[in-house]
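ARCHIVE RECORD
Type: protein–small molecule complex
Small molecule: FE3-S4 cluster
Source of inputs: curated submission
Record status: active
Notes field left blank by submitter.
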Amino acid sequence: MLERPTRQALPKKLFVKTYGCQMNVYDSERMSEMLAAVGYEAVHAAEDADLVVLNTCHIREKAAEKVYSEVGRLRALKSRRPDMVIAVAGCVAQAEGSEVLRRAPAVDIVVGPQAYQRLPEMLARVERARGGSGIVDVEFRPEAKFDELPAHEGPAGPSAFLTIQEGCDKFCTFCVVPYTRGAEYSRPAAAVIAEAGELARRGAREIVLLGQNVNAWCGEGPDGRDWTLARLIRALAEIEGVERLRYTTSHPRDMSDDLIEVHGAVPALMPFLHLPVQSGSDRVLDRMNRKHRASDYLRIVERLRTARPDIALASDFIVGFPGESERDFEGTMTLVREIGYAQAYSFKYSARPGTPAAADPLQVPEAVKSERLARLQDLLNSQQQAFNRNCVGKRLPILFERNGKRHGQLVGRSPYMQAVHAEAGAARIGDLAEVEILAAGPNSLSGGSPAI
Ligand code: SAH
Ligand code: SF4
Ligand code: F3S
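STRUCTURE (tokenized, with ligand):
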């Protein structure tokens, strides 16, 4: 006799919410794919889900605290649906471990960024021990993570993330990443090349190489020699279907000669680089343990511009780092004026537990931080607008990634990472086509019909 389908036999519903950087976006995609293989179907709201995964970020206090308010909201749902499973993944999970269970007892699973390949086992344990205490797995084993994850399946978007490096050994005095992601680890070149080939076969035309310090990537090449990121980029550019390459995020100290050179040599490598400087004051850079001076950074940018004259730059900045004086801050403003950024992220310094700068007695008052941030953001915004305006009248190749809000509109990216809204005409998602830029807004461009 045939068994009647039970509730367990129906596909379970999964909702993943992602906070933080692109590395978390990549991890969320891999988690969803892995869970799809064991019967979980993605849904768009926690209300409909049997399993909710919060893939969290610990970088600033605000980011980390968001998780607890979200779990509070989920707890209300769970009180009506006791079967619902809540998993906290990512960097808060890694940094706080079982503390997450103590602060938020509604959580069933705490899983670090290098342990999530074991989620299916952990879910089975939760099912067996219904009502038991939560499970914590925050082991650091990056090689196991990449080896044990199942291969990608299904179509890829036109632009795909590919994590090639994890962790950080730099220990900037403000930063939690060396503690939440562990030591620097580079995936072997052969694994990266295989994954890039797979992504291209599934439809990706742009590959964005990811790492906390992606330009520190180094590994054994398929030829048995030691490869640098520059060598890897040259190999990836040869893969059929790979038309655009990017890498993010880089540290100025690892901007080696061959990497600068590759910007002038490989056309698929897009002329846009996110190269965070954090501050323009040598005194602050030193206190941050960045291990370079402002002049070193300016020199790298000059050399990049010689290699690839149209390269556009982006950066991250921290204002109000402990001990930052008005003069130090002016150093940052001067550096920004000298470089001229196409895009940037800027943050008020946030003291993170366990990092050296958090214990510094010279903390800057909140009001001073806010005032400096406003001045810096005014300058950065005006630079971004000037950069965008400068594109008007040009024809730029745009890779279309999604539909626009308006019917008949597509949204894609320029080589310089700007979002471009265009009339679709004959173009489809996944096309790479030239568009005449007609207007520029603060955060995006608009263009005419693509030339197909
Ligand atoms: N690996 C990258 C950055 C990773 S974190 C690098 O070295 O540049 C992303 C950005 O968050 C950093 O560039 C920094 O600007 C910001 N950030 C990190 N820790 C912070 C803190 N404690 N307070 C404020 N901003 C911080
Ligand atoms: Fe954090 Fe510095 Fe490492 Fe970047 S290089 S992840 S800012 S410690
Ligand atoms: Fe946040 Fe972790 Fe990325 S702390 S910025 S999610 S590496």
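CURATOR ANNOTATION: The CA atoms of residues 56 and 317 lie 22 Å apart.
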